[in-house]
Write a structure and sequence with these properties.
The complex is a heterodimer of chains A (about 325) and B (about 650). Chain A has about 325 residues and is of the alpha/beta class. Chain A has helices at about 5-20, 25-35, 50-60, 75-80, 115-125, 160-165, 180-190, 205-215, 220-235, 245-260, 270-280, 295-310, and strands spanning about 40-45, 60-65, 65-70, 80-85, 90-95, 105-110, 130, 135-140, 145-150, 170, 200-205, 240, 285. Chain A folds into two domains: about 1-210, 3-Layer(aba) Sandwich (Rossmann fold), CATH 3.40.50.300; about 215-310, Helicase, Ruva Protein, domain 3, CATH 1.10.8. Chain A contains twelve helices and 13 strands. Among the domains of chain B are: about 1-190, no CATH class; about 585-655, no CATH class. Chain B is elongated, with a radius of gyration of 35 Å. At the A-B interface, helix 11 and helix 12 of A face helix 17 and helix 18 of B.
Chain lengths: ~325, ~650
């Protein structure tokens, strides 16, 4: 696959998604970026702004398997990963894969589950495999976890631990649509659902090929330095308790490559990094004033300040 | 912070105006009214937060000021320093009233600097040093504040900049920095002597107008200067003030024609100095060593306590005659510094003078001449010796005549007759003339000497301050066996007007300034170096074993310094080159050129701003185009094609013509 073909494929995917989620091109680009960078996506927003629609739309646009898990407080790890059951006929234990064994997995309202259940996803997210009873089962490729959570409702929720947050490559917030698009959404909703008539435009092979191409996008040495300067600035900032991890820097590197490819470029530019620093970095930063609610917002404003001082390479 | 920068800039501009007011011909009234306008404008700006003048007005006014400069120079003053100072002061105030960007601040600094430069060329006032030192302190401060502000603006946190940044610690450290600068300047100052000639120096300062000291002296010439407190010279006396009053003698005149004195024969002897030393005779009974700083005068006469027999100074040649007159080849246009040795015993041994000193022909031709001869005879009171006659006549004039600067008109046939026979009042001129003519009529050779009385003694500095109002004339009479002796028939009229200690200190400061700063010369440098060498000789003794050459001398030291300076500058240049080369290899040339062109127009890319963000902010299609080409080459490794490069030049040209936002 060359750049031209990749651009065409990405363009088709973008057009498909724009049919489902109207008026949110930036959000769609970020979702595509996460997909191309083999990353996982956390969508954080109030109910009813189209979090699930985006996830469903992405799943439907791809010709691959899709599973949705609604997280609740009584959900068990085995409800996600699957269980080993005794088969009377073969007289052997056999593994019944859970819903995580799919190309695209939607974890809806992920913060409603207990930390134990949440952490069942850790291995799947990072190593793309599931270990049960001394056996390890690889997840299908491509594998992408889409999770949503509601930042407003806190009763009966378990905030995601830092280790898990760090494993989401991109954390985005949908935001309300503007008036014009909202009118369009209401008008069209009575005719048909937003996802109706949405057909697959990419198959699993295409996605793998795009991911492969993305990992070969050129990143100048100075841009790596730029990433590292931002990361180290967060570590020494006095208002930040926990700065960015090497995993964060790695995620940024891959995300920047993917965004460059999604923008039809074979090379990264400083803007890729700067644009992505909010979605990729903000949710990983723990500000010193943790008591402050809406840590994401604080992280974002701190990042903005840091980005203002870190020198962009020329 | 804006008001902080504005305050510093305002102080600098006022310093600039102050320097401008030191330029004598520029018109201090104009500049002080400009200062008032400036202060009002600053107050308005600080209070309202916006400049007092609009940009269009500043443009028009600057143009008008330039036209005024040309007209001023061509038609009014014909003096580039005076008209230039007026122009710069005007521009300074206009700019101060329309300050917008950091560049405007820098312009104010520069204009103030030029004003200081103009003042440096045309003033010898000690106030200048204070202005300069303050300027250095504040300009460093201002530049640091401006740079900080620019950096903060660039980083995007300009508005939230901490105010406490500009507190006492910053000020103290900046002042320390400035002090270091001044020390460094002093080092440079000491190592480079004044040249005394420069484009700006010649003609920039009119010499003190003073007459009556050369070929001719009118009877009323001195009265005019008797009230002028302008300082003519300062005389340092080795060993302190002598008990008897000193007479700084300028010239002697020997021919009286009824209205004034002139010289019968011009000076005839040209003396070339040996190593700057001129000798006119031998030491007498009482020797006085003096050092004279003579302000620029429009006379070529050299003044020294009478009677001088030796002069030393940076002079080419001197004219002299047998009667103790010393003259420069031409009137000095700069302050003159020389040492003189005089015999102050009051007499000057000489051969008997020729008949011209007895010439009383005027009295014969004057209608009332015989009355004066009678008067002389009566006044000499039957004495027969020349000395006796002279003392008697001196006594007679002291007792019976009154000193005044405004004598009545007496109805006589001339000023001499008026004075001696009718009004009996006058100033030193009349007294001296009267006595000289009476002596001549009594057969004693006599002549007029002009010069200055000793003036005011500055005990703090050990020197006399001699002013124009100390101008004086007296009589020299030839006494057999004694030679030429000095007689002063003028009754003491001098109001003993003592200046306060503060004035004396200030004058000492001015004197030191002239002595050590303005007239700093090669010989001072040599003296300094010799003193240093002497002090360092102990250390050198220690090092003598290590050094191959025991006395490297000044030339050796200079050579080492020169080589050192050369090495440092080469190293600095190499470093800068290396750094430049490093920076240049990454971003393509055209992009850097575009950034430079834009920043000249005030559109500066912040360090935290990506090229694309910058281009979007400006919203110029040309800038976007070049930015995209740059990104492709810089990060994508795709060099633009030949056609694109050619078109890029056009695009760059368009960008250079962009208007300031």
């Amino acid at each position: 696959m060359d750049l031209r073909e990749a651009s065409a494929r990405v363009g088709a995917l973008r057009a498909n998604l724009e049919g489902a989620v109207k008026g949110k091109p930036a959000v769609i680009d970020l979702a595509i970026t996460a997909l191309l960078a083999k990353g996982h996506l956390l969508i954080e927003d109030v109910p009813g702004v189209g979090k699930s629609t985006l996830a469903h739309g992405l799943a439907k646009s791809l010709d691959c398997s899709f599973q949705r898990i609604q997280f609740t407080s009584d959900l068990l790890p085995s409800d996600i990963t699957g269980v080993t059951v005794f088969n009377q006929a073969t007289r052997a234990f056999e593994f019944r894969p859970g819903p995580v064994f799919a190309n695209i997995v939607l974890a809806d309202e992920i913060n409603r589950a207990t930390p134990k259940t949440q952490s069942a996803l850790l291995e799947a997210m990072n190593e793309r495999q599931v270990s049960i009873d001394r056996a390890t089962y690889p997840l299908p490729s491509p594998f992408m976890l889409l999770a949503t959570q509601n930042p407003i409702e806190f009763s009966g929720t378990f905030p995601l631990p830092e280790s898990q947050l760090d494993r989401f490559m991109v954390c985005l917030s949908m935001g309300y649509p503007d008036a014009e698009h909202e009118r369009l959404i209401i008008r069209s909703s009575s005719e048909k659902g937003p996802l109706e008539g949405l057909g697959p435009v990419l198959d699993a092979d295409d996605v793998e090929a795009l991911q492969d191409l993305s990992s070969r996008v050129r990143v100048d040495e100075d841009l790596v330095t730029y990433i590292l300067s931002i990361v180290s600035a967060t570590r020494s900032h006095r208002s930040i308790r926990l700065g960015l991890s090497p995993r964060a820097a790695m995620a940024m590197y891959r995300a920047a490559q993917a965004l460059a490819l999604a923008s039809g470029r074979e090379y990264c530019i400083p803007d890729d990094i700067k644009t992505l620093s909010g979605p990729v970095f903000a949710h990983r930063i723990i500000p010193a004033e943790r008591a402050l609610e809406g840590g994401f917002e604080t992280g974002l404003s701190l990042l903005k300040e840091i980005l203002g001082t870190v020198k962009v390479p020329l | 912070m804006r008001s902080h920068a504005l305050a510093v800039t305002s102080i600098i501009s006022l310093l600039g105006l102050w320097a401008g007011s030191l330029v004598e011909a520029a018109g201090s009234r104009l500049i002080s009214s400009l200062s008032v306008i400036a202060v009002a404008g600053i107050a308005y700006n600080l209070a309202s937060g916006k400049p007092a003048l609009r940009l269009s007005f500043w443009n028009a006014a600057a143009l008008a000021a330039f036209v005024f400069l040309v007209a001023d120079y061509l038609a009014i003053s014909r003096d580039i320093i005076a008209s230039g100072t007026r122009f710069l002061s005007l521009i300074l105030v206009l700019k101060l009233l329309s300050i917008r960007s950091g560049r405007d601040h820098a312009i104010v600094f520069a204009v103030a600097f030029f004003l200081i430069l103009a003042a440096a060329a045309s003033t010898v006032s000690a106030v200048f040093f204070a202005v300069l030192a303050l300027y250095i302190v504040f300009v460093i401060w201002g530049m640091v504040v401006l740079n900080l502000r620019r950096d903060l603006d660039d980083s995007g946190i300009g508005t939230g900049a901490p105010e406490d940044l500009f507190g006492l610690p910053l000020f103290l450290s900046l002042t320390a920095l400035s002090a270091a600068c001044i020390v460094l300047t002093l080092a440079v100052f000491i190592s480079i002597p004044r040249m005394g000639v420069g484009i700006l120096e010649a003609g920039s300062r009119a010499p003190l107008n003073i007459s009556g000291f050369s070929e001719r002296m009118e009877m009323d010439s001195i009265a005019g200067v008797q009230l002028d407190p302008a300082i003519v010279m300062r005389v340092e006396i080795k060993g302190g003030s002598p008990p008897e009053p000193l007479y700084f003698r300028g010239a002697s005149l020997d021919f009286f024609d009824g209205s004034g004195w002139s010289r019968r024969a011009s000076l005839d002897r040209l003396i070339k100095g040996v190593d700057g030393v001129f000798t006119f005779g031998g030491p007498g009974k009482r020797t006085l060593e003096q050092k004279v700083w003579l302000e620029p005068l429009d006379t070529e006469v050299l003044f020294a306590a009478s009677n001088a027999y030796m002069v030393e100074g940076r002079l080419q040649s001197l004219w002299t005659d047998g009667s103790g007159n010393i003259r420069l080849p031409s009137a000095p246009f700069r302050r003159l510094e020389y040492a003189a040795w005089s015999d102050i015993s009051g007499g000057r041994p000489a051969r008997a003078p020729d008949g011209s000193y007895l010439d009383a022909s005027y009295l014969v031709s004057s209608p009332e001449g015989h009355l004066i001869t009678e008067l002389a005879r009566a006044a000499s009171d039957g004495r027969t010796s020349a000395l006796g006659k002279a003392l008697a006549i001196e006594e007679f004039l002291h007792k019976n005549y009154y000193y005044t600067l405004t004598p009545r008109s007496g109805g006589g046939s001339g000023p001499l007759e008026d004075f001696l026979l009718h009004t009996k009042e006058g100033w030193c001129e009349h007294f001296a003339t009267g006595m000289a003519m009476m002596l001549r009529s009594a057969g004693v050779p006599a002549r007029i000497a002009t010069g200055f009385l000793e003036g005011e003694w500055n005990e703090y500095g050990g020197y006399f301050i001699v002013r124009k109002q100390d101008a004086h004339s007296w009589v020299e009479a030839y006494i057999d066996g004694q030679g030429w002796m000095r007689f002063d028939p003028t009754p003491s009229s001098r109001r003993l007007e003592r200046h306060g200690a503060l004035f004396m200190y200030l004058d000492l400061l001015r004197h030191r300034w002239n002595r050590h700063i303005v007239n700093f010369s090669f010989s001072d440098q040599r003296a300094l170096a010799l003193a240093f060498e002497e002090k360092a000789s102990g250390l050198k003794g220690l090092l003598a074993g290590l050094l191959p050459d025991k006395r490297p001398g000044i030339k050796g030291v200079l050579a080492v310094l020169l080589v050192f300076a050369l090495a440092v500058s080469v190293a600095v240049m190499a470093l800068r080159r290396a750094r430049k080369g490093n920076a240049a290899q990454k971003a393509p040339r055209y992009y850097m050129e575009m950034l430079k062109a834009l920043s000249l127009k005030g559109m500066r890319k912040g360090p935290g701003e990506t090229p694309r963000e910058f281009a979007d902010r400006l919203g110029e299609a040309d800038v976007v185009q070049i930015t995209e080409l740059y990104l492709r080459e810089r990060y994508g490794g795709e060099r633009p094609g030949r056609v694109a490069l050619v078109r890029m030049e056009e695009t760059l040209a368009r960008i250079r013509k962009l208007k300031r936002p």
